[in-house]
Write a structure and sequence with these properties.
The protein has 363 residues and is α/β, with parallel strands linked by helices. It has helices at residues 2-9, 57-74, 84-87, 98-101, 103-118, 120-123, 127-140, 145-157, 162-171, 175-182, 206-215, 219-232, 237-249, 265-283, 287-303, 310-326, 331-342, 350-353, and strands at residues 20-25, 33-39, 42-48, 196-199. The two termini are 40 Å apart.
Length: 363
C-alpha cells in the first residue's frame, strides 16, 4: 500500500525527515473501528479488528495520503488566499466545518480524493467508478476534486515527481470558474465523517508576544514565552523553536548547562542556534519558518567555514537551495537565499549588528 502510493506519486521512499506514520492494532477498542490522528509531524492510525471484518486498507491509505500531502500543500498556504470567495460557496455543503474555513484543508482533502478516485482498485477501476467517486466527493462539498483529478491525468503522462508538479497544480486553480461550478452542484444531505482528526496549532498570543519582545530587545521574556508555548503545546512548535534559535544566535539565551570553557562563546551560541533551527524544520511546514531556518543554517555553516574547507560550503549551498525551494511566496527570503548561493555569508558590521530587526520579520 505504501510503496504503491509512493510509486504513483513518484515520491522517494521513506524520505520523511523526522516525520512518522504508525499503524497500531488495538484489541480493546470498539470492534471494526479505524481512527487516525495527527500531532504535528506524527501521524497514527489505530485499528480495532473484528472477526471477519478484515483490515480497512482504504482508510489506512487515506491517512497515509494525508501524511504525504499535508506538508506539501501546507507550504502553499499563503498562496491560497484567492480561494476565500470559493469558500463562501460551501456554506450549505454537509462536510465538516473545518473544510469551509481553511483553504489548505479543503485543497488537501480534494487532492487526496482525486488520487483515491484515480487509483481505485489498483488504478484498474472502470472509468464510471472513478467518475462516481469524484461526483460523490463534489456533492459532499469537496468541489476541487474534479480539478485535481484532471490534473492527475496530465501528471501521469509527465515524468516529474509529484513534489515538482504540485506548484503548477496549485497555481492553476481558477477560483472564479470553480465558484461558478460550485453553484451548479446539488450538495448531498450528509457526508462521510473525515477519518483524520488533525491536531492543529491553536491561534494564540504567546508567540506573537515573544516575537514582539524579541524585536524590542527583551530576549529573556521572548525565551520564556517561546518555551511556555512549547511546554503547553498551544501554538506552532516550529515557530517557537525558530524564535529560540534567533535568541540563541544573538547569544542572549540563558545558560542552563555548564559551558565548555574551551569553546568560544560565539561558537557555542551558533551551535545552539543550529540545533534549534534544525528542530524547527522538523516541527513545521510553515513556509517562512522553513525558508529562513534553511537560510540561517547556511549562514552558520558559512561562518564556520575555513577557506580550504569545501565541505562546509557545499553543505551551506544545499541549505540555500532548500531555502529557495521553500520561498516562492517570500521574495526577501528568496533574495537572501540566492545571495547565499552566489557567495558565502559575511558577518554584518558592528553598525548592522546594533539593528534589532531580523530579515524574517519583514515578511
Amino acid at each position: 500500500m505504501i510503496s504503491g502510493t509512493e510509486l504513483y506519486l513518484r515520491l522517494p521512499s521513506a524520505n520523511y525527515q523526522g516525520r512518522t506514520f504508525t499503524v497500531y492494532m488495538e484489541a480493546m477498542g470498539a470492534p471494526s473501528e479505524t481512527n487516525a490522528r495527527s500531532y504535528g509531524n506524527d501521524y497514527s492510525v489505530v485499528i480495532t479488528p473484528a472477526p471477519g471484518s478484515g483490515l480497512k486498507m482504504e482508510l489506512v491509505r487515506h491517512a497515509f495520503l494525508h501524511f504525504l500531502l499535508d506538508p506539501m500543500v501546507g507550504r502553499f498556504a499563503v498562496n491560497l488566499k484567492p480561494l476565500d470567495p470559493l469558500m463562501d460557496s460551501l456554506r450549505l455543503a454537509p462536510m465538516d466545518e473545518s473544510f469551509k474555513e481553511d483553504p489548505s484543508l479543503l485543497v488537501t482533502e480534494c487532492l487526496i480524493r482525486a488520487v483515491e478516485a484515480r487509483t481505485l482498485a489498483g488504478a484498474k477501476a472502470p472509468q464510471s467508478e472513478q467518475d462516481r467517486s469524484v461526483h460523490d466527493s463534489e456533492q459532499e462539498g469537496f468541489i476541487l476534486t474534479r480539478y485535481f483529478y484532471q490534473r492527475l491525468l496530465q501528471f501521469e503522462k509527465d515524468s516529474v515527481g509529484f513534489r515538482a508538479a504540485l506548484p503548477a497544480m496549485i497555481a492553476g486553480i481558477d477560483a472564479r470558474a470553480e465558484q461558478k461550478r460550485a453553484g451548479q452542484i446539488q450538495f448531498a444531505a450528509s457526508a462521510e465523517p473525515e477519518l483524520l482528526h488533525l491536531s492543529r496549532p491553536k491561534e494564540g498570543k504567546l508567540l506573537v508576544t515573544a516575537e514582539e519582545r524579541l524585536s524590542a530587545g527583551d530576549a529573556q521574556t521572548a525565551e520564556k514565552l517561546a518555551k511556555q508555548a512549547l511546554a503547553e503545546k498551544s501554538e506552532d512548535p516550529g515557530r517557537a523553536l525558530f524564535i529560540l534559535a534567533q535568541i540563541a544566535l544573538r547569544g542572549k539565551m540563558e545558560d542552563t548547562q555548564p559551558a565548555d570553557p574551551n569553546e568560544p562563546r560565539a561558537l557555542r551560541a551558533m551551535h545552539r542556534a543550529q540545533d534549534y533551527f534544525e528542530q524547527a524544520l522538523k516541527a513545521t511546514s510553515e513556509p517562512k519558518v522553513v525558508a529562513w531556518s534553511h537560510i540561517y543554517l547556511g549562514r552558520i555553516l558559512d561562518l564556520q567555514n575555513d577557506e580550504d574547507d569545501a565541505t562546509r560550503r557545499a553543505a551551506a549551498v544545499e541549505q540555500y537551495k532548500a531555502a529557495v525551494s521553500a520561498s516562492d511566496s517570500l521574495p526577501e527570503a528568496k533574495a537572501a537565499a540566492e545571495e547565499g548561493l552566489q557567495k558565502p555569508y559575511a558577518p554584518p558590521t558592528r553598525a548592522q549588528q546594533d539593528q534589532p530587526a531580523q530579515e524574517d520579520q519583514k515578511q
